[in-house]
Amino acid sequence: MKVNQKDSEKLLWDQMRSSSCKAIPVTGSQNRALPKLLLWLILFVSATYVVYTLKLVGSSRACDDDIFSKPNRKSVLIHSSSTSGKPNSTIPSNYFLQNQTMFSSEKIPKTHQKTELKDIVFGIAASAKLWEKRKNYIKLWWKPEEMRGIVWLDKPVNNSKNEGLPPIKISGNTSHFAYKNRQGHRSAIRISRIVSETLRLGMENVKWFVMGDDDTVFAIENLVRILNKYDHNQFYYIGSLSESHLQNIYFSYSMAYGGGGFAISYPLAKALDKMQDQCIQRYPGLYGSDDRMQACMAELGVPLTKELGFHQVCATFLFWVFLLLCLGCF
C-alpha cells in the first residue's frame, strides 16, 4: 500500500504534536514552582527584617535629656575636679573629650580674641641631608622679628645666626617606636611628634600651632585671616586635601597633608600630647606622619576642618607648570 505525500506529512505532524504535548506538563510545573520559590524568599527576608527591627527598637533606650541640663553639667564638672583630677569611674574615659565643646561653653565666651601673628607658633619638619637647599624656602616667608617657631631636624647642622631663620632643635629619639611600613621611612614618626615637642617647650600666649615641611611656603597674611575664623579655645584640626586625586584615594580624604601645612588649636595640642605616643604605637603600619596625625585626631574625636588655602601641590606638578611657563616665553 502506497502512502501519498499528504499522509506522510500528516503522520509527521502528529508525531511532532504528540511530543510537544508531553513536554508541556513539565514546563508548566517548573513555571508554577518558580513564583512560589520567589514568594517564600520574599516572605523570609521580610520576616527577618521585621524581627531585626523589633529587636533593635526593643533594645534601644530613650535618651536621658536631664544629664545635659545646665545644673547637671556643672555637677559633673565639680565632681570630676574634686577627685584628684580624675573623672568619675561611672563615666566613660572619653566622655569629657567627646563633649569638650559642650562643657567648654560654660567657661568661654562666644566671642574669642583676635588671632595675631605673634599668637602662632610654627613647627617645621626638616632633615639635615636637605637642609642647605630647603632652608632657602623658609627664608621666603619667615619674619624673624615677628614670628615664633622651631625647625626640627634629625641631626645637628651648621647654621649661621645671621641667616634670619627660626631656631633649630633636634627631635627626640623615636627608635623605640615600631615602624612596619616597607614603602615608607621611620622618620615619619619623628615628624608626627613635632607639634607635641613644640608644645613641651612651654611657650606662652600660644593660640595655634602650625605644622609644615621645610619646603612649605606660607602666605602669612592669609594664614592669620583664616585662623581668625575659628575659636582657638576649641578643638580644631585645620588643613586640606592633596590636589592629587590618587594621593587622596591611597591615603585619606579626611587627612590634612603636611606639605600644604595644617593648624592645630592650643587645647587640642595639649590633648594630643597626652596620648600621642600611645597612639603612634597602635599604628605601626601607617606610611607617613600625616596619616599618623589623622589617626590620633580620629581617636580624639576631632574631624578635619577643611580650608582650601592649605595647598598640597606635588613637585612634579610644579615642574610641569614651570616648564610650560618657560616654553611660553620663547
TrEMBL record:
Q: Which domain of life is it from?
A: Eukaryota
Keyword check for Transmembrane, yes or no.
yes
Q: Which Pfam family is one of this chain's hits? A: DUF604
Q: Which Gene3D superfamilies match?
A: 3.90.550.50
Keyword annotations of the record:
Membrane, Transmembrane, Transmembrane helix
Annotated transmembrane regions? 37-54, 309-329
Question: InterPro entries per the record?
Answer: DUF604
Q: Does the keyword Coiled coil apply?
A: no
* PANTHER family for the chain: FRINGE-RELATED (PTHR10811)
Q: What is this protein called?
A: Transferring glycosyl group transferase
According to its UniProt entry, this protein's organism is: Ilex paraguariensis
